[in-house]
């Protein structure tokens, strides 16, 4: 006769707990392998790089509202500045993404150097490697320094870095109901009227876009999407996107230097 087995509720809980622990063990093993293998590192760089690229696009859309005048750009900035539940989670997520991207990229570069510690005679460039791809770590570090300055300039508003002698935090405008809000439009005009600041901004944005010109192609390659059919398309589109980003970001300091928005400072 067949044996009929019965399970108590405690037995069922034990089985469920064992299954959960097994799934957790498998997940931890996958994460460990991901963090210790070069393939995993490339995947992490690709995913974090994609997230940062989307932020760069979104940030540009927000910045271009500068051309719509003070009311529009100030209202846009006010949305984030006064919304603590939105502002800090976004900042922390960005900080974690940047940190993970930089740490993983540095480990990849170090692993590549260890794999070939001695260069070839004359140190020739690797076959099919662009200058952008060979300088990713260097441009990434310079861009990181630029981002830190940019945050000190317009987010922290540290007077010591704006070269104007003014405190940007004091630039306020009426916002209805006897409240005031930060005048972001005036801050941008005042900040970019300094030629050295605008020049540094253009160099920083230029290096960022130069970094992205290879980064976009590397993302497709790391995710297995850069095959023979799409390879020529990606190689052509990536520099175009980088140039459009540069023109969008770079147009703001240039327009300010040419006189756009100067009436707000009168």
Structural description of this entry:
There is one protein chain. This protein has 266 residues and is mainly alpha-helical. The protein has a single domain (40-116, 127-265), classed as 3 helical TM bundles of succinate and fumarate reductases (Up-down Bundle), CATH 1.20.1300. The protein has helices at 9-36, 38-63, 70-81, 84-115, 131-134, 136-155, 159-162, 184-192, 195-222, 231-257, and strands at 172-174, 180-182. The protein has a two-stranded antiparallel sheet. The model has no long low-confidence stretch (mean pLDDT 82).
Fill in the keyword field for this structure:
266 residues; mainly alpha; 3 helical TM bundles of succinate and fumarate reductases; two-stranded antiparallel ribbon
Specify Rg, calculated over alpha carbons: 25 Å
Helix content: over 70%
By CATH, the architecture is named Up-down Bundle
Q: What's the CATH C level? A: Mainly Alpha
The SSE string, one letter per element, is HHHHHHHEEHHH
- Compute the number of structural domains: 1
Strand line-up of the largest beta sheet: 1-2
What is the helix tally?
10
First-last Cα distance: 99 Å
User: Given the helix and strand composition, which structural class is it?
Assistant: mainly alpha
Strand coverage percent: under 5%
**Which stretches are low in confidence, meaning pLDDT under 50 for 5 or more residues running?**
none
Number of strands: 2
> Biggest sheet, open or closed, and with what strands and sense?
2 strands, antiparallel
Rough shape?
globular
Oligomeric description of these chains:
single chain
CATH topology: 3 helical TM bundles of succinate and fumarate reductases
Q: What's the overall average pLDDT, rounded?
A: 82
């Amino acid at each position: 006769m067949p044996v009929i087995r019965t399970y108590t509720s405690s037995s069922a809980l034990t089985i469920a707990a064992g299954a959960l622990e097994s799934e957790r063990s498998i997940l931890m093993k996958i994460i460990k392998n991901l963090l210790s293998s070069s393939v995993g590192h490339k995947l992490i760089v690709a995913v974090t790089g994609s997230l940062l690229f989307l932020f760069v696009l979104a940030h540009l859309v927000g910045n271009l509202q500068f051309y719509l005048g003070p009311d529009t750009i100030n209202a846009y900035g006010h949305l984030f500045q006064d919304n603590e539940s939105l502002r800090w989670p976004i900042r922390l997520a960005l900080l974690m993404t940047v940190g993970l991207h930089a740490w993983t990229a540095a480990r990849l570069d170090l692993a590549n150097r260890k794999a070939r510690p001695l260069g070839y005679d004359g140190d020739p460039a690797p076959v099919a490697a662009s200058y952008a791809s060979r300088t990713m770590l260097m441009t990434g570090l310079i861009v990181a320094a630029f981002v830190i300055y940019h945050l000190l300039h317009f987010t922290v508003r540290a007077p010591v870095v704006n070269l104007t002698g003014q405190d940007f935090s004091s630039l306020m405008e009426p916002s209805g109901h006897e409240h005031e809000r930060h005048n972001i439009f005036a801050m941008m005009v005042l900040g970019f009227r300094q030629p050295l600041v605008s020049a540094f901004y253009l160099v920083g944005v230029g290096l960022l876009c130069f970094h992205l010109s290879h980064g976009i192609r590397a993302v497709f390659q790391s995710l297995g999407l850069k095959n023979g059919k799409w390879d020529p398309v990606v190689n052509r589109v990536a520099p175009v996107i980088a140039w459009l980003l540069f023109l969008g970001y770079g147009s703001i300091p240039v327009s300010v230097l040419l006189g756009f928005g100067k009436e707000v400072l009168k």
